[in-house]
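Reviewers asked in the last cycle whether our approach scales beyond single polypeptides. To address this, we selected a multi-component target totalling 709 residues and predicted its structure end to end. The input consisted of the following lines:
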Amino acid sequence: MSDKGDPVLIALVSCGSEYAGVQSELEKAASMLNAKLVYPEMDVATLDTIGMEFGLEVASPDLRLMMARAKAVVEGVAKVDGVFVTSCFRCAEAAIVRNELRRYIFEKSGLPVISYSFTERTTAATLLTRLEALTTIARRKHLLARVKQSGITAGVDSGSTTTKAVVMKDNEIVGEGWVPTIKVIESAETALQQALDQAGLKREDIQAIGTTGYGRFLIGEHFKADLVQEEITVNSKGAVYLADKQKGSATVIDIGGMDNKAISVQDGIPGMFTMGGICAGASGRFLEMTAKRLGVEITDLGDLAIKGMEKNVEMNSYCIVFGIQSLVNSLAKGSSPEDVAAAACHSVVEQIFEQQLQEVEVKEPLILVGGSSLIAGVPKALGDLLKIDVIVPPHSQLIGAVGAALLASGYVSE
Amino acid sequence: MAKVIIYPTNSLILSDMVERFGHEPLAMMEKIKEIINTVGVDSPPLNITPEGPKHGLKYAAVEVPAGVRGRMSLIGPMIDLAEAGIIVGDSSISFGCMGCARTNELTKFLIREKDIPILEIQYPHTEEEGQDFVYKIAEFLKSLPSGSDEK
Amino acid sequence: MAEETEDNITKIVVISSDSILPTDAAMKVYESEDSITIKETCFGTMVNGPREAVLKVVETLRSMDRNHIFVKERGFKPGAEVRCRAGRGGGPRPGFHFLREEVNMLPMIGRALDKYEAGEPLEEHEAPKKLDISKLKKIIDSEL
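The resulting structure, written as structure tokens, was:
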């Protein structure tokens, strides 16, 4: 995964990371990616005035230090390839500064910026995906500029719930595979074989292979993949490719089996993004459980939801335990399965709104991807909530695999 | 010799004054030295591991951010040892150990809550204030048990 | 980071004196026979070595101009890799900014210590009062 050559320089704009026990995790994640964390030099006198200059008066000196470092990055005093803005989780003062700085740096410098709030439990593994996306954007801009797939390539997305594979040939998807993730490598093998069988191709026909998802490193090694890439970059690329919105701005929302992503994309390159992953109530799992309680297949839940009215069901919680209980209670009180299905879709979408969309600007077109996008009630609920037309591109559930196959074709020798 | 906690906890002036007048400053620098030399722990630069914020739970609840609790794991034990305290206000430019306003509020509160002699004073801006500052600190330090005259 | 033995300490000695230059202080340290290392920085001289030896040297330095030489301990030894801006990726270490602020106050503190030592009584100063309402009225009227 770590590229050879010069390390990517990432400005660490943080307060408290050294005191919260996460500094070494940050360093660890960076070194795994051949990235180097740097601390922008700035004019010390700036610290006296930066609060008023930025227009944000804060009590904590370290937050002023963050502003001064951000300014040094924007003004090019510090030469860096990307910026990681981070502060303690649950600190309101820092959250305001963090969000405004991320916006400021991104808008004024065009550098990739990622923001994150940590606790002492934050590990290098958690930070890795975020830093990996950051370093990729900085390092592989040429790869991300690719708009067409060429040759014969495969993409495998080893997700937490399902493993997806596609085989592409000359800018067309010619084979698909989709299996539940049980054993990571075996599931990937099965999915890829399904795709190859459908395409009528053999393993040796594949000229390049890309892997993504939770299991990307393991299967990447197994398949000797040309590209092993986190989901933020891959899914952004895959989404704008499938939706045919490769130029300009777009917002990609990915509702996966276990976590969600909201990504602000510009010309196919991810800018700001947020990743969920601590709440099952905002995931496809919630919908699976609802389908199970309603006694319908997950694939039928969407059509059911379209016919229902979520307002007829009182939901007291988004939680996968208590929220589902609310739905069951409603059924007992006589609510129709249609209303309950609609309420479940709305619940998931509202959670996405609460957790993910607070930090990402929603610019049209809004492209919804991931397995849950196929449940018709979900894009409808999202559109209702945001008052925006939601695009669900074809093969939206295969987004990671398509993105990986597309990007991997950059490794096919012409 | 009294153990005197100083605030800001990394102050050169306060640490020097306390020592100058024959007492022992409880300051961040010694604490940092202690922690960075902990055998078997390698978590640069400050060697604060995820255990730090957990030790900080003694001084702040779990809902308090990790950075505050991590800092409190350094400052808290010093407050526990303090026999006297000097708190200097208006120290707006202080970073790192003193960079978090919430930690600083909690630190000052915990010092004030202790039943020990405390001097509260502002950083000086003028010559007159400077004199006032030094005199008050000197007199305070002399008033502490077994405080010696200037060495 | 290199292993630091238990009783090795580092002190920062900040010279704010008209009569003593940092180089004088450095020479004084070099004269001592103890196994002391020093490093001069923008704001002071770092003295590192075994505790007893450092305390002895620091006391010698202080005595050169007692009220205008200030000392504090430092957690990191001179050139500690984890704190070195070359190793750490640039940017002054956080404590530096505060040290800078305090160093600017030292001449004032030094003069006050001189006065205190000389037994000069503290001059009482009246805190500036709020502007009298009648005076404010006068100012307003004069502007008109």
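Strands of chain C lie at 8-15, 37-40, 45-50, 69-74. We regard this as preliminary and will revisit it once experimental data from Aim 1 are available.
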